[in-house]
């Protein structure tokens, strides 16, 4: 019996870094999402297709079974909550860290010591809420959808919680990383029902992903 498999990916780094893992499973995507307008991409395997969605939408497509599996950052998975998702493999791709950053002139440590109420702008409100709660720091969280670095520069917030890789964006905006919240990498997520119903079809792909990501 042939079983269709649908893999959810986002454009950019996740798509690019997932390609070698798919390759290890013998699967090649035959169109480039950067130049194609298609949102459903074929592969060399007639039973496997890739759908292109926003990074933060990957868990939702997989949760509801519109995709059987997908690749999503730990940042995105923590905000989503992981409901309905089996998360078997850390793929060790799209690595970065989640951090607190403030303008270079702002004394974060002493603000925290004095128990000041901080305004924090972030896309990652759930993770930020948990982080500051665990430290006993009082915060007002301001939800943004991008360009968090701008917020403290124009007085929207005292601090930001954002992803950092090289730190060059922070430096270019006179921001300083003052607290490391967690390491981030991308995970394979699988729909729980698909894992049971399509186990035989999924198994070799999951194994190939696991072996290929171990060496990273
Ligand atoms: P969108 O561009 O649709 O708003 P996004 O910015 O979350 O979404 P990407 O920039 O493609 O989309 O990021 C996808 C994932 O890659 C993130 O969820 C995160 O796990 C990881 N990531 C984000 N920024 C970096 C970075 N600078 N270096 C390495 N990995 C990163
Ligand atoms: Mg981005």
Automatic annotation (TrEMBL):
InterPro entries: ATP_PRibTrfase_cat (IPR013820), ATP_PRibTrfase_CS (IPR018198), ATP_PRibTrfase_HisG (IPR001348), ATP_PRibTrfase_HisG_short (IPR024893). The gene is hisG. This is ATP phosphoribosyltransferase. It catalyses: 1-(5-phospho-beta-D-ribosyl)-ATP + diphosphate = 5-phospho-alpha-D-ribose 1-diphosphate + ATP. Lacks the C-terminal regulatory region which is replaced by HisZ. Keywords: Amino-acid biosynthesis, ATP-binding, Cytoplasm, Glycosyltransferase, Histidine biosynthesis, Nucleotide-binding, Transferase. Its EC number is 2.4.2.17. PROSITE patterns: ATP_P_PHORIBOSYLTR. Belongs to the ATP phosphoribosyltransferase family. Short subfamily. It comes from Noviherbaspirillum cavernae. SUPFAM superfamilies: Periplasmic binding protein-like II. Residues 54-210 form the ATP phosphoribosyltransferase catalytic domain. The keyword Cell cycle does not apply.
């Amino acid at each position: 019996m042939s079983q269709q498999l649908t893999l959810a990916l986002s454009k950019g780094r996740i798509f690019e870094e997932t390609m070698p893992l798919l390759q290890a499973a013998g699967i090649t995507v035959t169109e480039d999402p950067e130049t194609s307008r298609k949102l459903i991409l074929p592969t060399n395997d007639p039973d496997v297709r890739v759908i292109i969605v926003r990074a933060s939408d990957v868990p939702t497509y997989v949760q509801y079974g519109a995709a059987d599996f997908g690749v999503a950052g730990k940042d995105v998975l923590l905000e989503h909550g992981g409901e309905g998702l089996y998360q078997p493999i850390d793929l060790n791709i799209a690595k970065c860290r989640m951090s607190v950053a403030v303008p270079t002139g702002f004394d974060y440590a002493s603000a925290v010591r004095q128990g000041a109420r901080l305004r924090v702008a972030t896309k990652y409100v759930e993770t930020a809420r948990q982080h500051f709660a665990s430290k006993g720091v009082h915060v007002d969280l301001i939800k943004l959808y991008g360009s968090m670095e701008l917020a403290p520069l124009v007085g929207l917030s005292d601090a930001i919680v954002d992803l950092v890789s090289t730190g060059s964006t922070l430096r270019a905006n006179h921001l300083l990383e003052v607290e490391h919240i967690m390491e981030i990498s991308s995970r394979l997520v699988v729909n729980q029902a698909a894992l049971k119903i399509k186990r035989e079809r999924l198994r070799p792909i999951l194994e190939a992903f696991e072996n290929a990501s171990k060496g990273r």
